[in-house]
Amino acid sequence: MIEFKSVGMTYPNGNEALKNINLRINSGEITVFIGPSGSGKTTALKMINRLEDNTSGEILIKGRNIREYNIHRLRWGMGYVLQQVALFPHMTVEENISVVPELKKWKKNRINKKIDELLKMVGLDSEKYRKRNIQELSGGEAQRIGIARALAADPEIILMDEPFSALDPVTRTGLQKDIKEMQQKINKTIVFVTHDIEEAFYLGDKICIIKDGELVQQGSEEEIIRNPRNEFVKEFISSGNKRGEK
User: Fold this and answer.
1) What are the tens digits of pLDDT across the range 174-195?
2) 202 close to 34: Cβ distance less than 8 angstroms
């Protein structure tokens, strides 16, 4: 679905954010980018929808270089969920969710049906929440609306940049569980950034550990735990893997 081929990113000041990344992100799976702060994981995520542009190599979606796509259509084909939810504060819940479907010229009844469906999917009652102002929502509720908005136009790809890191542990655990269950129903290609190894292991079909701009190791939870590639990976996973080895 998404391929990174020898992808690098060097800023004008000479700082190398990413170095020679080679990666295949499979359709219908959750791929997690994880690493220390400043490792390049968010930069790698942003390259997929061209919020950042790679300076070497190429990124392909369905075998086609992303630079060949119209940038607006590329982004419309992806949902994006941030740590800071970035909902439009002057709009209601239903207005926030309907932004992209309206840009795509969906009919009103189709949008209304989608809003009801998505609110139910993220565990919120449609009648109770549709007309709510964003300021009335808790952090967890706002993040659920953010997820619903990202799914509103039925994109194939969902990008999630540390979406739960600002939430309290109970809310965060609940949303992790919801994403896991929701993915079984919607079967999207999800790329998820986190700095929490437990979150990565719980959610990820594939874990990509990034350090200093390099993809140090990729694989399933079991593969990484059983065969850490180097001392950094061993220490990194042991620092957060409270569940122990399988």
Assistant:
1) 999 999 999 998 999 999 999 9
2) no
For 47, the token pair is 């390259």
Q: What is the pLDDT of residues 13-25, one digit of tens each?
A: 999 999 999 999 9
pTM: 0.91
pLDDT at 240: 65
Tell me the three-class secondary structure of the chain, residue by residue. CEEEEEEEEECCCCCEEEEEEEEEECCCCEEEEECCCCCCHHHHHHHHCCCCCCCEEEEEECCEEHHHCCHHHHHHCEEEEECCCCCCCCCEHHHHHCHHHHHCCCCHHHHHHHHHHHHHHCCCCHHHHCCCEHHHCCHHHHHHHHHHHHHCCCCCEEEEECCCCCCCHHHHHHHHHHHHHHHHHHCCEEEEEECCHHHHHHHCCEEEEEECCEEEEEECHHHHHHCCCCHHHHHHHHHHCCCCCC
Q: Under 8 Å CB-to-CB from 32, ≥6 apart: which residues? A: 191, 192, 193, 194, 199, 200, 203, 204, 206, 207, 208
Q: Measured in Å, how far apart are the chain's first and last C-alpha atoms?
A: 29
Residues 211, 16 contacting (CB under 8 angstroms): no
Q: How many residues in total does the chain contain?
A: 246
Q: Which two tokens stand for residue 55?
A: 């300076």
